[in-house]
Each structure stands twice: as C-alpha cells, then as structure tokens.
Amino acid sequence: QKAIAVRATKTFKDDLGVTRKNGDEWLVRNTDTETYILGVNETFLDTVKLTTLTSRQYCVILNPIGSDGRPQYGQRKLVKVRHSS
C-alpha cells in the first residue's frame, strides 16, 4: 500500500475539519479517501510506501508525532502488533 505525503503552505482547515498549520506534514492513505485533489494551501511532497508489521515484528519510531500532531524530537516510541483474541 502507498500514501502521499502532503505539506501545508498556509494555515487552513481541511475538508475533515482538521486545522493544518503552515509547515505541518501528513499522510493521505487510500483508506482515507478514494481520490485526493490537493488544495491551494497544500504541496505534494512524495509517494510513501506504507510499512505493515507482522505479529512477530516491532519497530521503534524516532521523533514520533504526539497527540497534538507535532513531532516529539528526541523521543522514541515502541510499536508492537496487538493480538486479537
């Protein structure tokens, strides 16, 4: 699966009601929308291959994005697959 990376060039509120500040970056996946047309306040950055973990894998994310939507520089986040019963 793939996604596109997008950057806000000006502060605005997107179609989903999320306030995007100048310089914010985010991914738009095909599970988010079937088609996506960039707005005037958005810039296309790149196409990104999504990474999927198996039940035996984990990853450590450097500088993860916090609940406020901002990068947490210098932090690490351990991600493991949750097992469903």
TrEMBL record:
It holds the Pfam family Vault_2. Keywords: Cytoplasm, Ribonucleoprotein. MVP repeats lie at residues 1-54. It is found in: Cytoplasm. One of its GO terms (cellular component) is ribonucleoprotein complex. InterPro entries: MVP (IPR039059), MVP_rep_dom (IPR041139), MVP_rep_sf (IPR043023), Vault_2 (IPR041134), Vault_2_sf (IPR043179), Vault_N (IPR002499). This is Uncharacterized protein. The lineage of its organism: Eukaryota, Metazoa, Ecdysozoa, Arthropoda, Crustacea.
